[in-house]
Amino acid sequence: MIILASVIILPRVIRSIERDLVALKNEEFSVGDLRKVADGIYRGEAGTIAISVTVDVFVTDHLITRIDLLEHKNGQGDEAEFIIEDILLKQSLEVDTISSATYSSLMILKAVDAALR
User: Fold this and answer.
1) 49-83, pLDDT tens digit by residue?
2) Phi and psi at residue 50, in whole multiples of 5°?
3) How many domains does the chain have?
C-alpha cells in the first residue's frame, strides 16, 4: 500500500515543485524606488513546497541597511544566503543568483521583494 501511494503521489509532488521553481525562475524582482520607502523594518516571506524564506528588511534614509534572514528552509541552498551581501552593496534586487543555489537565491530575492512592496 505504501509503495503504491508513493508511486502515485510522489510524481505529482515532484511535478508541483518543478512547476513552482520554473515559475520562480521567470519572475522579475525590483525594490522599486527606495525614495518612496519610509524608514522601518519590513517583513517578507516567500515559499514553495521545497524552499521557504522569511526576511526582515531594514530601511534607513531610503537605503536598505540590513537584511535579517529569519528562516531559510532549503535542500542544499545554504550558499544562497550570500546573495544578501550583493543586495546590500547594489541596493537592488538585480543581482546574480548564487551558482549551485539558484532557486534558494531566487526565493530570497522574492522574500525581499515582498517585504518592500
Assistant:
1) 788 999 999 999 999 999 999 999 987 778 899 99
2) -90, -30
3) 1
